[in-house]
Amino acid sequence: MSKCVNLKRIYCSNNRLTEIKLPKGEKLEGLGLGYNNFKQDLSFLEGLVNLKELSLNNSPFYGSLKPLQNLRELKSLSLNGTDIDSGLEYLPESVKLSHSFLLGIEERKDVKFKKIRQVLGGKTPKQ
Length: 127
Description:
There is one protein chain. By secondary structure, this protein is mainly β. It has a single domain, classed as Leucine-rich repeat, LRR (right-handed beta-alpha superhelix). The chain has helices at residues 99-103, 114-120, and strands at residues 9-11, 30-32, 53-55, 62-64, 76-78, 83-86. The N and C termini lie far apart (36 Å). The model has no long low-confidence stretch (mean pLDDT 82).
């Protein structure tokens, strides 16, 4: 896939994937990797500066949101059921925290994302 520099969207949810090699181009706008078996942090996303939609639901991604800090185009972010447990302060202003971000369904037990929801508490999502 590394030669597909003109790809704008990659959606490969529900495939039991454990790794992905993303194209090096900056054209990728949508990425859906939910319901897979990725056990890694988010550093592989750092160069995707034009990414607008990111869904990682119910996959064991872990660590901080810090690698997303330069994704200034990011508008939609779904992390429910991940083990992401810190870094809210690094989210770009463009991200709209939707109700699904706050209240989504988690199929994985004892996920660490619950820590982020506790930090947000009853706060209203950005409008």
